[in-house]
Amino acid sequence: MKRFEDLLGSKPVIAMVHLKALPGTPLYGGHLDDIVEAARQDLLALQLAGVDAVMFCNENDRPYELKADPASVATMAYVIGRLKEGIHVPFGVDVLWDSVATIALAVATGASFVREVFTGLYGSDMGLWQGGAAEALRYRKRLGRDDLLLFYNVSAEFASPLDTRSLAERAKSAVFSSLADAILVSGPMTGEEVNLEHLRAVKEVLPSVPVLANTGVRHDNVATILEVADGVIVGTALKQDGITWNPVDPERARRFMERVRAVRGR
């Protein structure tokens, strides 16, 4: 918990910078500068609103792959490099859904944390999906980034675990056997609310490990969620009209952080 709070503070808000579709993916628009400028505007709005950290993700590379295209990883590094001088908060990265590529991108860009599905076996929209903690952590070691915090998504979106243990049991096991630095609890899809009872059950078995709500955090539920969680990751709720693929709405982001500060003040 100390490393987490030293980096991000208490009850942090990590806001998503969802990149536009990248080269080689079905929805790519054909202009790298458009990707950079859209990300720049989102980053600026989020930082002005007062978020504690940001995370860059290739959210619009639909349909998702389990092994990232090198062009996607290279383009993400290019975009973050173009924005680096304007990043004034800690930042993380997430390459959907490839844990080794995520580690590589973090090392290349100097990210402080990563989010991925490092453990478990799932039946998913992408087919049979298996986490790769052993490979990813050994890769992190070889690249000399033991300081890189690893956030384990243990209830992956767009998927259902084939493991019959409870979510709390799987989360506790991921910390013990696979060295998770933080645990993320998600809803069934991007933007869909996390089950509060699931979040509470995971936190009860991991009192000294950061447990965050990973999806579906909104203006109307963030206070309740932060009573249980050690932080939140938020994207959709801060977008224009609350639609995942829209740009960040500066006013929605500002009002969200006002609510968070009120919770912290209590």
How is this structure best described in words?
The protein has one domain (2-261): FMN-linked oxidoreductases (TIM Barrel, Alpha-Beta Barrel), CATH 3.20.20. 39% of the residues lie in helices and 17% in strands. It contains 9 helices and 11 strands. The protein has an 8-stranded parallel β-barrel with strand order 1-2-3-4-7-9-10-11, surrounded by 5 helices. Strands 6-5-8 form a 3-stranded antiparallel β-sheet, with no helix packed on it. It is globular, with a radius of gyration of 17 Å. The protein starts with a helix and ends with a helix.
The gist of it:
With 266 residues, the protein is an alpha/beta fold. The chain is 39% helix and 17% strand. The strands form two sheets. An eight-stranded parallel beta barrel has the order 1-2-3-4-7-9-10-11, surrounded by five helices.
Spell out the blueprint of helices and strands.
Blueprint: H1 2-8, E1 13-18, H2 32-49, E2 53-57, H3 70-83, E3 91-94, H4 99-109, E4 113-116, E5 121-124, E6 127-130, H5 133-142, E7 149-153, E8 159-161, H6 167-178, E9 182-185, H7 196-205, E10 211-213, H8 222-226, E11 231-234, H9 250-265
Parallel strand pairs: 1-2, 1-11, 2-3, 3-4, 4-7, 7-9, 9-10, 10-11
Antiparallel strand pairs: 5-6, 5-8
Pick out its properties.
TIM Barrel; alpha/beta; about 270 residues; 11 strands; 3-stranded antiparallel sheet; about 40% helix; 8-stranded parallel β-barrel; 9 helices
Radius of gyration: 17 Å
**Counting H and I runs of at least 4 residues, what is the number of helices?**
9
Structural class: alpha/beta
Q: Tell me the number of structural domains.
A: 1
Query: Class, according to the CATH hierarchy?
Result: Alpha Beta
Q: Largest sheet at a glance?
A: 8 strands, parallel, barrel
Say what the CATH topology is: TIM Barrel
Residue ranges: pLDDT <50 for 5 or more in a row?
Answer: none
Percent of residues in helices = 25-40%
Strand order of the largest sheet: 1-2-3-4-7-9-10-11
CATH homology-level superfamily: FMN-linked oxidoreductases
Which of globular, elongated, flat, extended, rod-shaped describes the shape? globular
CATH architecture annotation name: Alpha-Beta Barrel
